[in-house]
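Worked example

This section walks through a single chain of length 550. The input is the sequence exactly as stored; nothing has been trimmed or padded.
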Amino acid sequence: MKYINFSFFNLARIKTTLSIFLLSLVMILSFQNCSGGFQPVLDTSLNSSLTGPTEGGGPILAPTDKYKIQGLGSSVNLSGAKVTLFEIKPEVSKISVVVEGNSNLNKDFSVTSSGQSLSFVIDPKNLASTFNVKILVYNKTGSVLVENNFKINKINRLFTEGECSNLVLQSGGGNACLIYKNLVHVKNNVLSQSEQGYGANISHLQKFSPKIEIPSSGYLSNPSFNVYRGSVNSSDRNQFSSSDLIVNYQNDKSDKKLSQLMAYYWLNKQLDVMKRDAGEYSAENKKINVTSSTESVPNNAYFSSSSSGSSDVVMGVLKTKDGLITGEVAHQAEVFAHEMGHANFYYSIGSDLITGASCSSSSSGSVTVNNVAYPVYRCNYTNTNKEYYYRYNINGKWNPIGPFCSSAMGCITGINEGQADMHQALLFPEDPRIGQAFMNTMSGFEIRNSLASKASITEYFNEGAPGPGGEIHNMGGAYFAILWKIYSNPAMLRNDFAKLFSAHLKRFSADDDFLDGRNHLLDIVKTPSFGFDQKYISIVNDSFAAFGVK
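Given that input, the structure is written out below as tokens.
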């Protein structure tokens, strides 16, 4: 029985010239000094997509991928962004940042030397949907040299968040206390040591109080999902009642009730959102088995399909190299959404696409494990020339390294990773960054958060040097960034994007790359039966071209 696993995160724990490295990037809004003095104006050539879609149709602002602020009267969006001021001219003495309607965010910077670098953070997470920011640049006599005004619009959440208090729960606002997206997102900061690991006190971060309908059996099961505790076993699950869904995680180590509830709620919510917006969800009614938390899968999560037609979503734990468990992946709803993105792609296509490989009999180098060198062999897939991986043998067991796309134009598994990342962004469009609690950083996996400041598919391909280029998660970051650029265009409606995105998933074959992905989208836009009336042709073309796919 053949299984294909699509892992959320996979870094080989080996010393090898083929190692994959994650580089850390931040979303920067840069205020630059032009030749005529400090004169911020907006350079729209770097980003023409400053607004995005709402659930039903009007524009709202969505996090953008890369742009410099050089502008006056510009409208920009951020979901927590660092603003950097640099190359300050000698005549500047002070810079003031004034946030309309929230004086707590106001900042004054004294300039002590020419070229001084200054930075501040604007986080509109808890502010009104639209507010104005003013940058005032003063000279030595206290006069204003430059006044720059721009607008920041906060992206809307798809779900309301209620505090998990007895008052809210008793009033019918919800019957469970879950985690919205992930703990780092909720806290809006990294986790302390006391907030990590089994038995941690995270009650102050369980702020999301949705209404969960429990099946009459008490088990978290329906035609689409069967949720288990730590293994797919009829006895390895809990029974719940609608009045008993508030979990004290400090006493939850054995039951893992919070992980099971997170799985059941967010998987079903993703299904609901996709059906509402796209009108379909190929993974519906497939009775996918969900392992909510298992220590046998450290630092990973995956979707697995088999030739018998069964499939599984498996969530692991976060574990240090010394074996200390620092959290459960199931407490990260965007990871569930990512893995179900793989499931939806699998059922949209009806196969795994990549079906076999032929491995070279001659060594392509070596890998060192525990001070022992093992020969490495290159393996080429039999039904595509755009993807390959390496393998090495220890005591009769073959271990893979990769896979990798052969060129910057991507490959089908890179596309699979990117579309899975887009699935989670459709659930959390106000913060499309992925893996925040996984990495315990606000930015998460930088190259996969659609905000990574990569200018082209070539940059994504080269990420991870000195190892081979084209690691599939990195290339997935490129495809995700392109899809996000389409989604966040002001003329693109949320429902239209969901329909377009869902329809294009059904058209891929094993040898497809990014250019094929673009052509699939264009074909759908041009097909009258889809009802788009060709109005998104330029958006699709321009978004792919912006990253070098032409």
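What to look for: Residues 1-5, 10-87, 123-128 have pLDDT under 50 and may be disordered.
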